[in-house]
Amino acid sequence: MAAPKRFYVEQIADDMTLSAEESRHAKNVLRLSEGDEVTLFDGSGREYSAVVDHVARDAVHVHVVREAVSDREPGICVTLLIGALKGDKTELVVQKATELGVTRVGVFSSRYCAAYMNENKLERLRRVAREAAKQCLRATVPEVVYYESLEEALRAGEDSRNKLFACEFLPAGGEGLGRLQDSVCAVVGSEGGFSEEEYETARRLGYAGISLGRRILRAETAAIALASVIMYAAGELQ
Ligand code: SAH
Questions:
Q1: So where are the chain's domains?
Q2: Which end of the chain is less crowded, N or C, counting CB atoms within 10 A of the terminal residue's CB?
Q3: What pLDDT digit, counting tens, does each position of 6-26 carry?
Q4: 76 CA to middle of ligand 1, Å?
Q5: Tens digit of each residue's pLDDT (9 = 90 or more) over 225-234
Q6: How far apart (Å, rounded) are the C-alpha atoms in residues 59 and 19?
C-alpha cells in the first residue's frame, strides 16, 4: 500500500481542517475520502498520523490518531548561505538543499549580486521549502532567511563549528572540507562571485576558504554540489 499522503499544517490540533490549499489538493488531486489515512507535519520535526473525518465542499477535516518523531532528519545541522540568484535559480537551490537535508538556507545580497529579493520572493522560497520537505518526507521545513549583506549572513553562521566559504579564485587541490563536526555553515556566491574583500571578511570571521575544483561551477551547481558533499561526508547519503 502506498504511504499515506502528507500535508503541511501551520499548527497541529487533535481535530482540524486542512488549509484551503491543502484541502483543494487533498480533495481534487488526491481524491481523499472519509476514513483515509494521512500524515500531517508542522515543520517542527514531529509528524502525526491522522484520519480524514469529513470532506466538505472546500475543506477537508481530519483528526490526529498518534504522534511520531521523524527519523529522516540528518544528524548534522547544515546552514547554506547563497547569494541571491537570478530567475528561479534560488528556488532550485532551496528545493535541492531541502531534499539533501539542509537545516537553514540564508540568501544574501553581495557586491556582485545582480538579483534582488522582496517579501513575495522570500515567501515563494519558503513555500518551495515546504513543498520540497513534503515531497522528500522530511518533517522539518528548512528556515529560509534573507540577509541584506554578506557580512550579516556570515555572522548568522558564526556559531557553526565548521565554516566553509567556497571561493572560485582559490587554487584547486586544497584541504577540502576538513573534519566535519555537528554543525556546518557553507557559503556560496551568486553568479557574479565574490570580491577579494569579501573573501577577507569571511576569513576574518573564521571561515575557511575552499575550492570546488579546477572548473568554475555555476552558483546553483556549486551550492548543490557543496551541500551534497557535506551530507555525504556526514554519512547522510548512504
Ligand atoms: N563570476 C565568477 C564565478 C562565480 S561562480 C567568475 O567568473 O569567476 C558562483 C559561486 O560558486 C562562487 O562565488 C563560488 O562560491 C562558487 N564556485 C563556483 N566554482 C567554484 C570553484 N571552482 N571553487 C570554489 N567555489 C566555486
A1: 5-69, 77-233
A2: N
A3: 999 999 999 999 999 999 999
A4: 25
A5: 999 999 999 9
A6: 8
Look at residue 205 in the predicted model and tell me its pLDDT.
97
CA dist., res. 162 & res. 172, Å (int): 20
Residue identified by cell 481534487 is 28
CA 13 to chain centre: 25
Topology given in CATH for the domain delimited by 5-69: Ribosomal Protein L25; Chain P (2.40.240)
Residues lining ligand 1, Cβ inside 6 A? 166-168, 188-189, 192-194, 211-213, 215-217, 219, 222
The residue whose CA has the least distance to atom 20 of ligand 1 is 168
Phi, psi of 17 (to 5 degrees): -110, 130
* Of 43, 38, 195, 51, the residue nearest 110 (C-alpha): 195
CA–CA distance, 104 with 106 (Å, rounded to integer)? 7
Q: How many whole angstroms from 170 Cα to the centroid of ligand 1?
A: 9
